[in-house]
Input
Amino acid sequence: MRQFRRLFSVLTAALLLVALLPAVAGAEAFPGAALPASGFTGSFISGDDADQVFQVTLAAGQSIRFWLLPSDTNVAGTDFDMYLFPPGVTGVDTASQAVASSREAAGEVDGFVYTVPQGGGGTYYLDIYAASIPQAGQSTGSYRILYGDTATLSISAPGTTLAYGGTVAITGRMLDGAGAPIAGRAVTLYTSPDNVTWSAVATLTSTTGSYATALRGYRRTYFYLGFAGDDTYALAVSPIRVVTSRAALTAPAVPSIVARGRRYTAWGTLRPRHRAGSNVVRVTLYRLESGRWRQRLYTTSAAQDVAGGSRYGIWFTIAGAGRWKVLAVHSDTDHAATSVVRYFTVR
Output
């Protein structure tokens, strides 16, 4: 559910900016009140009845998605669960009678999709159950309910590793519960460097339900598409995808002819900038012997800050004449491995 929590934090802020929807003052126990419009808020005070019930009329074959978003201001440990009970029940005390439910941990978002069986339909009962509201100071636990017809978002991108600053094509589709395209809705592209902290980077619109954009990669990047929901369709998010990128590593600068016994430097650059002093580049010297490259020196090089990135390098002195090469390799948790090589002759 972490993916949904990220999107919901953005969505909740957007809803507050657009309109301050009234709280439900008259929420009741079974059989409950009519379900308000999507986006309504409700609350419990510790010690209240543990159930708030709402009636919703559903038709045969209808698919509907419900979300319950706990307030960020709730006291730690406040926990809500959500149940949907079918027509004909006489109460909401028996969880096994529910046709759908969500019982996430305290502070987590609850949600489910329910499709009414063919031949079914009628008045259903949405039960918001206060599983836990800490008693300290007669605290209040608040929530927001979002619902609507189901929408499904897909996303795809080639599974290639990008060069530094390269682009990857991203496509997506939004479909309704019957698999038909949903046109005319805006979706948002979210990205993250660590699959924890997310940012909205682009808003995409479509008249066909299909979306396309490009993402430029400078490091490992996670991404997904999100739809905030509207009066017809519920909030939807695509699966998370990831694209990997290589850092920009230049080959060590070495003269093509090197004199034996003389001291030389082999310098190169690395982008993006890495922490000064970190050993981020591995440098290996090889000599061609009897038709095979044989390792003669292996070391790591500490990064140095330069304009636009980092510099790496080594000092070396070679006594043996012949054909040589210097190989530089970089990889870290943010970048795929990349290597560059320079050939030279020692005389």
Observations:
- The longest strand covers residues 121-132.
- The chain has three domains: 2-148, 151-245, 248-346.
- The chain is about 5% helix and 55% strand.
- Helices lie at 2-18.
